[in-house]
Write a structure and sequence with these properties.
With about 675 residues, the protein is of the alpha/beta class. It is elongated and about 120 Å long. Bound molecules: adenosine-5'-triphosphate.
Length: about 675
């Protein structure tokens, strides 16, 4: 069926659903039944058929665009190369001729201002009112007009040349002069709903009482009948929205856009907002009168732009022009459609109301898989109690960056059921450290100790253990190690044999060539080196960028930065070292958490005066107390160098800070260092 809009109304350009009734309701035979009833009104035409345009004019038919007349002048009229001084007059003459063709008496018209004429469409009604306001551009090249009579509302525009500059100017000029029409019910010839329409609503579970209380009417256009939703403020008619059998909507032109049902929310603290009049009526059936509907549907998507100033927020003026009615509203329940445009509308409304004031609903399932899409569907498929439940169970509108624990329940469940992996930490491989220190992905461990205490050796041994037990791979940024020496140390730990048969190997058997070759493959597969090839010092950002690449490309689970003082510290002159360290550790922690990568960061203690050989304190780390403040774990590696105090190969692993009690606690454990292979063991007999 073809559908045409009358002159006095404008189609809704929103994404409002235009499905046919038969598609959108469970009463598939409804449309058919309505058609069968057509004889009641017009024997030969279907009831609710297309809506005719206004009665034929005495003027020749004009090609209509949705907003009125455009066609006459938009034909491709060749534009003169240039216009002479007196061209304005000639343009204006052409324009006047065009306007006369559509019945305007332009004798008194003056360019550059609004002129008031008798409307050729409605002839000014009984009072012969000069209701047509026509603005003619100062250069006489274009005109735009509107009839302010409620019953007419004819509007249009024309221009002398298709690409006339003055055209857009005159259109703009007309806009502010468009005053909102005051509707009179008697002019619109609204009628109470006929029994058939009441029946149609009752099939959608909307009662006659609800229809009457909400002023739902009907209107005849020649031989057509459509539903009329009356938009009122303080009881006065502000606008009308029409709906035909095909679920096509249009509105009275040049009327103020307001929420439907506005009077129902005056003084209410809870306000429900829906996306259509039917939903507003459905809410009433579920016991909620404090509900309003937006007047013109939903946008296709959320705007990526900043909110415009109020006066430029044209699409949402209906939200700004009811501040009084919304004065008491402290809770806005957004119950727009469940489809993407409906959700975009919710977001746009929430942006304007303030998300902290907003709630949202979840539409329940109507069948095995499909969700209800709006309030009327819930009413029809599940009944009023279900709709009531939907509103009562409205949840807080999400605010970016503000969460509740429910948002994380999946993750917390996985933590509880230990399916996340290594949440209590991965064992270091030394049983006597199990209660003290375990490796949790995404944490930062600071390792310190006096020079030569074995910090680097112990970390290397730890990495070998983690690789052996869990297959973890690592990125190494070890500035003090030559690559070949670092390879030797790691291979010795892996093969458990010395690299050379040198003095340090004592009488231990050297690793064989096969063991060495196998070891090389393991080395290559397990460690990724972050090094500045030009002898420059790496800065932390550079290191973390490469570590990120190692995570993404090779799946590394750990990063070693050894040591802090070998990084290139580009500390700005106005920044203290404390501030600098704080920022650097924030970067490292962010990297660790984001990539679930454990970071070991080696930092030296400052020069200790009066040092008597004991392990240093974490607060002794050179640079800043932030090392201990910001890390998740703090470990001091210390070894005995006094033969009289005990075995000199004994190493103390002093766990001085553990933030996560699941992963360990403060304490100390002793390990024994095997000088030949670089291995550490908890049992001195294994040396
Ligand atoms: N418990 C130990 N007994 C004997 N020698 C050890 C022990 N621990 C480490 N070493 C030796 O000390 C040397 C330095 O070890 P390592 O590089 O791990 O120390 P470090 O604390 O990292 O030193 P620096 O702070 O200078 O970087 C190595 O030659 C290593 O073999």
């Amino acid at each position: 069926m073809r559908f045409r809009y009358p002159h006095a109304v404008v189609p809704l350009f929103s994404t409002m659903n235009t499905q046919t009734l038969s598609n959108s309701t469970p009463f598939s035979n409804l449309q058919k039944s309505l058609f069968l009833q057509t004889r009641f009104f017009q024997p030969k035409r279907p009831f609710f058929t297309v809506f005719c345009s206004k009665r034929a004019s005495k003027f020749p038919p004009l090609p209509l665009k949705t907003n009125g007349y455009h066609g006459v002048s938009t034909a491709k009229v060749p534009r003169p190369v240039h216009l002479e001084e007196n061209s304005m007059e000639s343009q204006f003459d052409i324009l006047k001729k065009k306007l006369e063709v559509v019945g305007m008496d332009t004798g008194i018209c003056v360019p550059g201002q609004n002129n008031h004429l008798l409307c050729p469409k409605c002839q000014g009604g009984d009072t012969l009112e000069k209701s047509l306001s026509i603005y003619i551009a100062p250069d006489g090249g274009s005109a735009a007009w509107v009839c302010f009579r409620g019953k007419c509302g004819w509007q249009g525009s024309t221009q002398v040349f298709a690409d006339s500059n003055s055209y857009s100017k005159s259109m703009k000029k007309l806009k502010p002069t468009k005053k909102k029409r005051e509707l009179k019910e008697e002019d619109l010839q609204l009628e109470p709903l006929c029994d058939e329409l009441v029946g149609y609503f009752s099939e959608r579970l909307i009662s006659k009482e609800t229809l009457q209380r909400n002023g739902v009417m009907q209107r005849k256009y020649d031989d057509q009948i459509v539903i009329v939703f009356t938009y009122r403020r303080n009881g006065a008619l502000i606008s009308c929205k029409y709906r035909d059998v095909n679920k096509k909507f249009w509105q009275e032109a040049d009327t103020e856009k307001i929420f439907y049902g506005l009077d129902d929310i005056v003084g209410e603290s809870d306000v429900i907002i829906v996306e259509g009049e039917m939903d507003k009526l459905a809410m009433e059936e579920a016991g909620f009168r404090n509900c309003i509907s937006v007047p013109d549907g939903a946008p296709p998507s959320v705007s990526s732009k900043e909110l415009p100033p109020l006066e430029q927020d044209t699409k949402y003026q209906y939200l700004w022009n009811c501040k009084d009615e919304l004065k008491k509203a402290s809770r806005i329940i957004l119950a727009t459609d469940g489809d993407p445009p409906g959700q975009a509308l919710s977001e746009e409304l929430a942006r304007r109301f303030g998300k902290e004031k907003c709630w949202r609903v979840r539409w329940p399932k109507k069948g095995k898989s499909d969700d209800c899409k709006d309030a009327n569907e819930v009413l029809m498929y599940l009944g009023p109690d279900a709709l009531k439940e939907v509103i009562e169970n409205a949840e807080l509108y999400p605010i970016r960056g503000l969460f509740n624990f429910r948002d994380y329940f999946d993750e917390i469940d996985a933590y509880y059921h230990r399916t996340l992996g290594y949440d209590s930490g991965l064992s270091t491989g030394w049983n006597n450290l199990n209660g003290l220190y375990n490796i949790v992905p995404g944490e930062l461990t600071i390792v310190t100790g006096v020079p030569n205490s074995g910090k680097s050796e112990w970390i290397d041994a730890l990495l070998c253990n983690l690789n052996q037990s869990a297959g973890w791979k690592f990125a190494l940024c070890s500035m003090e190690n030559k690559v070949r020496e670092h390879a030797r140390k790691l291979l010795e730990k892996h093969v458990k044999k010395p690299f050379f048969n040198d003095r340090y190997a004592e009488d231990a058997e050297r690793m064989s060539l096969e063991e060495y070759e196998e070891g090389k493959l393991w080395l290559n597969d397990t460690f990724y080196l972050i090094r500045c090839e030009n002898d420059a010092l790496p800065n932390i950002k550079w290191v973390l960028d490469l570590a990120k690449a190692a995570v993404l490309r090779h799946g590394v689970r750990g990063l070693v930065i050894d040591p802090y003082n070998e990084l290139d510290h580009q500390r700005p002159p106005n920044m203290t070292e404390t501030e600098y360290v704080s920022q650097m550790l924030t970067l490292i922690k962010r990297f660790a958490q984001h990539h679930g990568c454990h970071v070991w960061f080696v930092a030296h203690p400052r020069q200790l005066h009066n040092w008597v050989g004991g392990p240093p304190n974490l607060y002794d780390i050179s640079g800043s107390a932030h090392f201990i403040n910001k890390c998740d774990n703090g470990i001091v590696i210390h070894r005995n160098r006094d033969p009289e105090a005990g075995p000199v190969d004994q190493v103390q692993v002093c766990v001085r800070k553990v933030r996560n009690k699941v992963a360990g606690t403060i304490g100390e454990a002793a390990l024994f260092y095997n000088r030949v292979t670089g291995e550490y063991s908890e049992d001195d007999r294994k040396r």
